[in-house]
């Protein structure tokens, strides 16, 4: 377990410590911590400047590409436009040329006017508004001190943000759940305002001060039931906007990262700067006890590295290992993540108060399992593998999270069918039969854990190897079934033992890692409350949640990046399907270099290629490191039968890594589309010129290359806009070349006579995207150079033919 602190990338900067409303559910004023009483009312110039300098210093030290800062309170608008401008200017100046700044403000909105909006437009400050529903729902809590309703002023603020001039600033609405309000009425009132996102929050509570549960009847999970009704209304409406809590459940159920600290196992990487310059933990801790968020650190004295190393911060960065035994054994823990840290507090637990399940434990389990069951029914009963609208999205070269998620679900179905074929066509021994029966039981009791293992990209290469037959097919089949079962058992947190035949001296546990076991015929894998053990002969290996694992254990490195969970796969022997030499097990240093590179590349994709980001985050779960080329060439690959994985030799820059990721994921997407749709006549044996290859390609190869080059065109389109002057002309030439040659390839496909009707529609949509790029002006010299290169390439290819 990596105990080193993560760098901080998210900050809450308190602008004003008082509020113009008197909301009776406010965690700042109405809960245990009352430190606001001793804070300065308004943040000082000095604290603003110091904060900006500290963040810039931290960013440089850790080479961060992106930081998020939220201006908060109290009510931050009370600080006034001049003070807010100073905060924005200080942060923008300090971080200019250092990293991208995502600057936001969260407000009750009652005093928002055009003067504030002009300031926010100047500094691109996104605005989130608190609103609990219609007037009756909102007025339960959000009133002025004299009892007046705040509903009308908030609606005026939202109307202002919805004007065309300011619409891009509207970040969304935040709503605190109250069981007395009808969930459908609340959702409808918020949805009617057409926000880009809604965020539902559970009211802050602890085991010492449990949440209100008025008129809950016989239900033991009223908050879970309330949110499920919102989910159903949202889904029935076609999910017209993001709902952060519900989206996070959906994402974590498919193995992706959460969008909120209230769910999932991703490390928390943020700090609060109070109006007096104190560095504190999350505000939600104010609900636990007086002084709970405090660290004793101050922006004038302490670095953000010191803040990152504070025990209260690192305690929230340990993932599964940082949870209590009850949470670790729960089948939905990878979605729930133990819930919000503050909600775990119990002063009577004797361990510091936070090693407990959430006070909303039953509600969260009800919500997660309810959404899981609804999604399974939605996919199996109502949804074809890919709807027409989703196919059109993907055909254009992109595809959002829902479209790619449908592909992933279909690929999981294919993997399940392959596993069934392996079982039915292979001879069974007692070990394999016992493993299969255990897996079948887990599939009923903990299906999400089984799905997570069966979605492993390298299951299909193993299954195909078995189904091709051969003298070793039987042993390979039984070993693989046992490995999958053991991994599912451990992911589910269940106690029990699986006997796994071993080969090549390594015990493979797909999605988890591998254990070096030497010359043993079998290993007994036993799940335990604190981790698991592996017994090989007289030797026992222990992998514990509480301490560092046995040195022989090669844990899979999984990185929770903002909005994307991705693993490095350097242990699975079936990853050898990419046509290039693989790396051996990476060192900790090399793994960290990959984390840094992927973090930077991902931020670049989100910023410069945002149309590709949602689909990539939904469908790309594994990066397999390749051995670097001695010729210093960039190497990458996507295997047709390894959905969810790409293989890459780590390049020299995050921008190049970003290009390789989006390029190869295009192949991954299209490969999955070809599993559900017939786009061409497979009997076509003609070969076609491909502008990116020295050799002619079969029709599917040309289709794959053309589709992938839509992303290449967009990469160079972004690079010519963002590259340093010394590299900008080369980017311009490459953009000019690839857009024309990709358009030429589209024409070749359409003229091939081998596309089906659906294939013609698909390729026509590809062509529309490329045609849009052809309308953009390009420097005449760059265009001439691009065309000269294209002509030379075609002539060279023809000479070899």
TrEMBL record:
Q: Looking at the Swiss-Prot or TrEMBL record, what is one Pfam family this protein matches?
A: Radical_SAM
Q: Which domain of life is it from?
A: Bacteria
Radical SAM core domain: residues covered: 5-256
Keywords, alphabetical: Iron, Iron-sulfur, Metal-binding, S-adenosyl-L-methionine
Query: What GO molecular functions are on record for this protein?
Result: iron-sulfur cluster binding; metal ion binding; oxidoreductase activity
Q: Which PROSITE patterns match?
A: RADICAL_SAM
What's this protein's name?
Answer: FxsB family radical SAM/SPASM domain protein
- Annotated organism of origin: Streptomyces griseorubiginosus
């Amino acid at each position: 377990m990596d105990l080193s602190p993560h760098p901080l990338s998210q900050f809450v900067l308190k602008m004003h410590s008082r509020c113009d409303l008197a909301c009776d559910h406010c965690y700042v004023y109405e809960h245990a911590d009352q430190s606001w009483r001793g804070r300065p009312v308004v943040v000082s110039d000095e604290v603003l400047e110091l904060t900006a300098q500290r963040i810039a210093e931290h960013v440089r030290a850790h080479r961060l590409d992106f930081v998020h800062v939220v201006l908060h309170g109290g009510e931050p608008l009370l600080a006034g436009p001049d003070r807010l401008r100073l905060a924005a200017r200080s942060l923008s100046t300090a971080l200019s040329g250092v990293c991208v700044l995502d600057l936001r403000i969260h407000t009750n909105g009652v005093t928002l006017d055009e003067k504030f909006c002009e300031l926010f437009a100047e500094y691109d400050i996104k605005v989130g508004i608190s609103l609990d529903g219609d007037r009756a729902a909102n007025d339960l809590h959000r009133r002025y001190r004299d009892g007046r309703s705040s509903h009308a002023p908030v609606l005026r603020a939202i109307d202002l943000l919805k004007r065309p001039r300011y619409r891009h600033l509207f970040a969304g609405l935040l709503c605190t759940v109250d069981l007395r309000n009808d969930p459908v009425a609340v959702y409808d009132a918020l949805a009617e305002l057409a926000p880009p996102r809604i965020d539902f929050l559970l009211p802050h509570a602890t085991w010492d001060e449990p949440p209100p549960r008025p008129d809950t009847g016989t239900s033991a999970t009223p908050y879970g039931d309330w949110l499920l009704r919102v989910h159903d209304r949202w889904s029935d409406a076609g999910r017209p906007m993001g709902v952060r809590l519900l989206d996070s459940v959906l994402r974590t159920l498919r193995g992706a990262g959460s969008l909120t600290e209230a769910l999932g196992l991703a490390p928390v990487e943020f700090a609060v700067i109070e109006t007096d310059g104190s560095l504190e933990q999350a505000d939600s801790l104010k609900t636990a006890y007086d002084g709970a968020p405090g660290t004793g650190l101050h922006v004038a004295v302490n670095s953000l590295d010191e803040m990152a190393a504070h025990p209260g911060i690192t305690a929230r960065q340990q993932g599964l290992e940082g949870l209590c035994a009850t949470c670790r054994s729960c089948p939905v823990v990878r979605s729930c993540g133990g819930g919000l840290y503050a909600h775990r507090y119990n002063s009577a637990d004797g361990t510091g108060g936070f090693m407990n399940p959430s006070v909303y434990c039953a509600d969260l389990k009800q919500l997660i399992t309810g959404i899981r069951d609804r999604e399974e029914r939605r996919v199996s009963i109502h949804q074809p593998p890919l709807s027409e609208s989703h196919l059109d999205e993907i055909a254009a070269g992109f595809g959002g999270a829902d479209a790619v998620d449908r592909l992933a679900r279909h690929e999981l179905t294919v993997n399940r069918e392959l596993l069934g074929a392996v079982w039915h066509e292979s001879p069974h021994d007692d070990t394999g039969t016992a493993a299969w029966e255990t897996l079948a039981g887990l599939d009923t009791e903990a299906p999400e854990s089984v799905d997570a293992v069966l979605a492993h990209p390298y299951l299909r290469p193993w299954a195909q190897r078995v189904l091709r037959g051969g003298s070793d097919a039987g042993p390979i089949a039984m070993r693989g079934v046992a490995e999958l079962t053991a991994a599912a058992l451990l992911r589910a947190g269940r106690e029990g033992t699986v006997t796994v035949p071993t080969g090549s001296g390594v015990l493979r546990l797909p999605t988890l890692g591998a254990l070096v076991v030497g010359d043993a015929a079998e290993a007994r894998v036993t799940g335990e409350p604190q981790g698991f053990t592996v017994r090989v002969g007289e030797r026992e290996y222990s992998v514990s949640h509480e301490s560092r694992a046995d040195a022989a254990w090669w844990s899979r490195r999984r990185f929770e990046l903002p909005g994307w969970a991705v693993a490095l796969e350097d242990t699975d022997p079936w990853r050898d399907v990419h046509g290039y030499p693989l790396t051996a097990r990476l060192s900790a240093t090399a793994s960290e270099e990959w984390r840094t590179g992927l973090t930077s590349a991902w931020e670049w994709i989100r910023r410069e290629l945002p149309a590709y980001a949602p689909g990539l985050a939904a469908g790309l779960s594994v990066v397999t490191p390749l051995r670097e080329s001695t010729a210093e060439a960039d190497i990458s690959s996507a295997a047709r039968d390894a959905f969810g994985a790409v293989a890459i030799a780590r390049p020299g820059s995050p921008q190049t890594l970003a290009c390789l990721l989006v390029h190869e994921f295009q192949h991954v997407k299209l490969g999955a589309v070809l599993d559900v749709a017939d786009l061409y006549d497979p009997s076509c044996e003609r070969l076609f010129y491909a502008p990116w290859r020295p050799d002619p390609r079969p029709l599917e190869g040309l289709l794959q290359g053309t589709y992938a080059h839509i992303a290449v065109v967009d990469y160079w389109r972004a690079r010519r806009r963002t590259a340093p002057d010394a590299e900008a002309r080369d980017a311009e030439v490459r953009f000019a070349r690839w857009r024309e040659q990709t358009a030429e390839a589209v024409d070749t496909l359409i003229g091939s006579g081998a596309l089906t009707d659906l294939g013609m529609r698909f390729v026509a949509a590809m062509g529309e995207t490329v045609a849009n790029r052809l309308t953009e002006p390009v420097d005449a010299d760059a265009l001439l150079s691009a065309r000269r290169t294209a002509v030379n390439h075609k002539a060279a290819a023809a000479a070899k033919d």
